[in-house]
Amino acid sequence: xxxxxxxxxxxxxxxxxxxxxxxxxxxxxxxxxxxxxxxxxxxxxxxxxxxxxxxxxxxxxxxxxxxxxxxxxxxxxxxxxxxxxxxxxxxxxxxxxxxxxxxxxxxxxxxxxxxxxxxxxxxxxxxxxxxxxxxxxxxxxxxxxxxxxxxxxxxxxxxxxxxxxxxxxxxxxxxxxxxxxxxxxxxxxxxxxxxxxxxxxxxxxxxxxxxxxxxxxxxxxxxxxxxxxxxxxxxxxxxxxxxxxxxxxxxxxxxxxxxxxxxxxxxxxxxxxxxxxxxxxxxxxxxxxxxxxxxxxxxxxxxxxxxxxxxxxxxxxxxxxxxxxxxxxxxxxxxxxxxxxxxxxxxxxxxxxxxxxxxxxxxxxxxxxxxxxxxxxxxxxxxxxxxxxxxxxxxxxxxxxxxxxxxxxxxxxxxxxxxxxxxxxxxxxxxxxxxxxxxxxxxxxxxxxxxxxxxxxxxxxxxxxxxxxxxxxxxxxxxxxx
Length: 482
Prior knowledge:
alpha/beta, Aldehyde Dehydrogenase, Chain A, domain 1, Aldehyde Dehydrogenase, Chain A, domain 2, 2 domains, seven-stranded mixed beta sheet, six-stranded mixed beta sheet, 13 helices, 20 strands
């Protein structure tokens, strides 16, 4: 019998509950149940699929305060960010329905349909325990697939509640959404099962490598995976900039540095700044961070408080230890740390609150090639032309998700756009490296990912067969009965 999974709250370190984990046998049964449900769902007409997905979205909205409290409790998010995430999960279901409907042309209502793949294996991380899952659930279901969802072992409770809500509206299609509960071993079993037709996963670069190795050993190759594997995101601060634009850059980056306490794949991790601006840049960041820390915004989110950045505790002791190790390595590599003290340890010895930290380095050293999933911002100088800064930004293999530049030179912006190796290239963004999709899909290059999600131009592409298109057009002016 498998050991129960203990779920702790990062907000105060307390044990929330213990839940039963899956075994090899129970997971196999769930995949079989998913396949059976998909066989019934696959021939369902488009209109019926839409009705179910709309009902699920409405049910999530109806329960959004309950779900947000659960997200705060098990993921440590502030109430404001948790509500935003839950509503975002509900909204993406409706947006996907809209995106799969092509614009009307010559009085004809149009859409494309293709054959479903089958059972989609979904693995999600702790930092967005509901929203990111529905980036896959929405197109997977609308395409006619079923989903077996393995949430992070750190945040399984909101996934359990989502399944209950889904089942309450699923009717005859109850069983389309299954949960696989457990740690890494359960995820590996899900990936390796020959019955999963596609794997969509969010996690670390190491997790992605493990998934690829398992899939390569399968007898039946699945459809191309969707792997979102984090990003050691870099931003260049050019010297072709005005003092006002420099302040705009710093204010913009603050949000993508501090968001979710540095525990987002789109956080800004590295600043590559022209040496001429280095002192002014550091002073500006330090002043803003001092104000933020002094404001008392870093508090237990279970008390109901929120802040503009969704800044709260680190998820667990492992995250804190990585933060501490990164600070120590900065000092060992000749750098300087500003901030980064542990907070609230007397009140919550089992929780891990920290000040955000600036790490000033003489050059881009080894620590900057690692992704520290915590609120530490590495700053190093470049000299000469912007090409030198771009080379530094591109150097880490895990720097393939989001990149940014702040410059007032269109020539520099164009060079940056054509030579950045990241999947998202942002020029003078008002939100740093945060929220980079802008309706163009979400995905990384290099070690940061494979495939794309949130592709508004063709949301179902990754979740359907690449052949056997059905291009459907219906005259909107002809009244139809039921």
